């Protein structure tokens, strides 16, 4: 027993103590030590690093007692201009992870670089054998209200849903009204959360990936007038209120539909982590915000069709993602459908024989759709059991009208074959569309039915989509089918059974939908798309009155169909 205690003591001391021979003169400081708002920047300064190396690095940790190998991210010291002097600094914006941060400096030597210890992209991860210094803790003090605020449409035209995150799940509200100086209406929010035990596989259910997600609140603003600007704030007197924000309520009598549509955006973070994140997503959010502000009092919404945050089991990436999109998602409804990186795991319940060659793998990082299902609430009540004790997967398939367009979202990750609940929903939904109210139908899903990608593993899935779903799209005169997953832009002719229905330079309504792949909002694993000069630029949405404009800006496509025929 005594030897066991001694061994533990030795391990404990070596875990907490820097290497004496390397760290006797290294100091590490951080300022400020108390933050009051997410995305506040801290400055981390170091000095006294002897014989600086371009492999010396700074680790970012939360919670503070995390083992050295379980960082949330890292930055090499050579990112500081004066690093070769042994001193320097980096500025990092921090989001509220509901636990304090600490920072640690390490020396990583070249003979310790090993391909056996690498990230998900095959790049060696920095070694933690030689810790030089550790900082004091940095925390969030009295936070000024909740964060991660985002809107979504409900099944009722006169409602708007708002969701946000708090530290403790205390009773919270949404206060709203037509006058910013007089928010005279209030709605109480429901609250829910998920736990580590709800995760289905590594790394989501391991200490390296799990972090406390906080409490997700869900409130509905009701009895809204059509096409009006409403102001709102969320929170409570005890926990603080958010800044006042605003949105334009839905108006399905409008002759105009404005939507920002894209897939596979992901998350920008100001550090390296266990896989390469999506730096380009920062520009996508920036330009969408510019366009939203230019719209004035016109209603619009955002559609993100799968591969949402690319957290892949590393929980803090969801916090980074929702803080990143908050400027746009708190101003217009933010709608999603599920992708492989939110859901897929080895034991998922729907794995037909034709998918056993790699269609559904480990892309969800063990999350099995749980964070996606809790953090978002889309219209409808679609769900699918996980086959474990985890909550059912939500937000799989649903639809709504927005102006002159009927939008239908589907799941390519769960059963869509003939006879399934999803197939029956899709069939019923398409057959019941009132084309006098919404002359255009847009279907959206993650994995494409048509693409030039030659990825072999998805071929069986595409065949089953063509077999089960294409007849529904064709028979019901779907105008446009939008897909992600392939990280480039591809537009096809109106196509049925791999044959163009219309090859002339003017669009003729009916026959087959136009298929467009739009998975280029942030993730860039695919080669850059090259324009084809021989492809005619023709409108997708015909109209006897008005016009249709399609705008592109850094990874998004905006649809503005106008008029009813």
UniProtKB/TrEMBL annotation:
<dbReference type="InterPro" id="IPR029052">
    <property type="entry name" value="Metallo-depent_PP-like"/>
</dbReference>
<dbReference type="InterPro" id="IPR041792">
    <property type="entry name" value="MPP_PAP"/>
</dbReference>
<dbReference type="InterPro" id="IPR004843">
    <property type="entry name" value="Calcineurin-like_PHP"/>
</dbReference>
<dbReference type="InterPro" id="IPR015914">
    <property type="entry name" value="PAPs_N"/>
</dbReference>
<keyword id="KW-0964">Secreted</keyword>
<feature type="domain" description="Calcineurin-like phosphoesterase">
    <location>
        <begin position="263"/>
        <end position="489"/>
    </location>
</feature>
<keyword id="KW-0732">Signal</keyword>
<comment type="similarity">
    <text>Belongs to the metallophosphoesterase superfamily. Purple acid phosphatase family.</text>
</comment>
<keyword id="KW-0378">Hydrolase</keyword>
<comment type="subunit">
    <text>Homodimer.</text>
</comment>
<keyword id="KW-0325">Glycoprotein</keyword>
<dbReference type="GO" id="GO:0005576">
    <property type="term" value="C:extracellular region"/>
</dbReference>
<dbReference type="InterPro" id="IPR008963">
    <property type="entry name" value="Purple_acid_Pase-like_N"/>
</dbReference>
<feature type="domain" description="Purple acid phosphatase N-terminal">
    <location>
        <begin position="146"/>
        <end position="247"/>
    </location>
</feature>
<protein>
    <recommendedName>
        <fullName>Purple acid phosphatase</fullName>
        <ecNumber>3.1.3.2</ecNumber>
    </recommendedName>
</protein>
<dbReference type="Pfam" id="PF00149">
    <property type="entry name" value="Metallophos"/>
</dbReference>
<feature type="signal peptide">
    <location>
        <begin position="1"/>
        <end position="23"/>
    </location>
</feature>
<dbReference type="GO" id="GO:0003993">
    <property type="term" value="F:acid phosphatase activity"/>
</dbReference>
<dbReference type="GO" id="GO:0046872">
    <property type="term" value="F:metal ion binding"/>
</dbReference>
<dbReference type="Pfam" id="PF16656">
    <property type="entry name" value="Pur_ac_phosph_N"/>
</dbReference>
């Amino acid at each position: 027993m005594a030897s066991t205690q001694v061994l533990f003591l030795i391990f404990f001391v070596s875990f907490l103590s820097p290497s004496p021979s390397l760290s006797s003169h290294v100091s590490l400081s951080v300022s400020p030590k108390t933050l009051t708002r997410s995305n506040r920047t801290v400055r981390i300064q170091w000095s006294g690093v002897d014989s600086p190396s371009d492999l010396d690095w700074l680790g970012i940790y939360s919670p503070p007692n995390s083992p050295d190998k379980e960082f949330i991210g890292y930055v090499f010291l050579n990112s500081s201009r004066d690093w070769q002097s042994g001193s320097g600094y980096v500025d990092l914006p921090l989001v509220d992870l509901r636990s304090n941060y600490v920072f640690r400096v390490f020396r990583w030597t070249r003979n310790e670089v090993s391909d056996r210890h690498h990230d998900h992209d095959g790049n060696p991860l920095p070694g933690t054998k030689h810790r030089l210094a550790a900082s004091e803790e940095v925390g969030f003090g009295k936070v000024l209200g909740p964060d991660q605020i985002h809107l979504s449409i409900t099944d009722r035209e006169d409602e708007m849903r708002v969701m946000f995150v708090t530290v403790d799940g205390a009773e919270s509200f949404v206060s709203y009204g037509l006058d910013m100086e007089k928010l005279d209406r209030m709605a109480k929010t429901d609250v829910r959360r998920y736990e580590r035990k709800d995760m289905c596989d590594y790394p989501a259910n391991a200490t390296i990936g799990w972090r406390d997600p906080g409490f997700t609140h869900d409130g509905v603003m009701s009895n809204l007038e059509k096409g009006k600007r409403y102001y709102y704030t969320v929170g409570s007197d005890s926990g603080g209120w958010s800044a006042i924000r605003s949105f334009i309520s839905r108006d399905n009598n409008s002759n105009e539909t404005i939507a920002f549509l894209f897939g596979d955006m992901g998350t920008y973070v100001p550090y390296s982590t266990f896989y390469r994140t999506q730096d380009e997503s920062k520009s996508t959010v920036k330009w969408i915000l510019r366009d939203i502000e230019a719209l004035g009092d016109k209603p619009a919404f955002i559609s993100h069709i799968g591969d949402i945050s690319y957290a892949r089991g590393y929980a803090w990436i969801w916090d980074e993602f929702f803080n990143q999109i908050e400027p746009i998602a708190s101003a217009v409804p933010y709608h999603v459908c599920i992708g492989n990186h939110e859901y897929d795991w080895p034991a998922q319940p729907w794995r037909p024989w034709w998918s056993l060659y790699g269609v559904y793998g480990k892309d969800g990082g063990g999350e099995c759709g749980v964070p996606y299902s809790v953090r978002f609430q889309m219209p409808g009540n679609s769900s699918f059991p996980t086959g474990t004790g985890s909550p059912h997967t939500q937000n799989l398939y649903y639809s709504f009208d927005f102006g002159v367009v009927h939008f239908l979202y589907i799941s390519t990750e769960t059963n869509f074959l003939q006879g399934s609940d999803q197939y029956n929903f899709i069939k019923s939904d398409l057959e019941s569309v009132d084309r006098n109210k919404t002359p255009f139908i847009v279907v959206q899903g993650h994995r494409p039915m048509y693409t030039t990608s030659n990825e072999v593993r998805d071929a069986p899935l595409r065949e089953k989509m063509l077999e089960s779903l294409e007849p529904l799209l064709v028979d019901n005169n779907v105008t446009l089918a939008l897909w992600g997953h392939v990280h480039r832009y591809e537009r096809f002719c109106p196509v049925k059974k791999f044959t163009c229905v219309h090859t002339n330079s003017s669009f003729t309504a009916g026959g087959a939908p136009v298929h467009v792949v739009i998975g280029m909002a942030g993730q860039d694993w695919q080669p850059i798309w090259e324009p084809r000069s021989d492809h005619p630029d023709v409108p997708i949405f015909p109209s006897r009155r008005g016009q249709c404009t399609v705008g592109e800006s850094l990874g998004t496509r905006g649809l503005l169909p106008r008029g009813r025929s």
